Amino acid sequence: MLLPAICLISIPGNCMSSLKLEIEQQRAFSSAEEEALLNVLRTSDCLQRVFQRSTRKFGVTSTQYNVLRILRGAQPRGLTCAAIGSRMITSEPDITRLLTRLKTLKLIRQHRDRSDRRVVWTQISEAGLDLLKSMDPVVEQLPKEMLGHLGESDVAELIRLLELARQKSKIMLDADGGVD
Description:
CATH superfamily of the domain at 32-141: Winged helix-like DNA-binding domain superfamily/Winged helix DNA-binding domain
Largest sheet: 3 strands, antiparallel
Strand order of the largest sheet: 1-3-2
Strand content: 5-15%
Oligomer: single chain
Number of helices: 7
């Protein structure tokens, strides 16, 4: 039996990893951890691009969708800019500009706090809720399309491993004072 030219799992000395072939890297990775990290980053980018393509069909970016999803969950009170930022899936350095774009699209509304005028509360608008309602079937199906082929136990193991990696990353960020 002939071995395939590409292995899904790198076996030292046996065949080249699919990531090395994808990025056309000639040199060996410095460690299995480097190869794993680069695989996570590359896979994250691929999954993000698929998700971005699906949200763009509705006229919003995946980051804007994330804000709307967060605000839907925070109804009816809404959230402050800082609270939205802390709940984002991906770090967004300029939440204020992002919210301004959503306000221009009439997907959110904002008002100043009565007791502290420095605080601005953001709520999802009816138009924002309508948009999410139309997006829900597509967005709910997308993870199944992207990861359903893995099977239930593989997905559970993937979640476990990613949470362990993220936990360590948070410890490292906290040790640096949380500064990016």
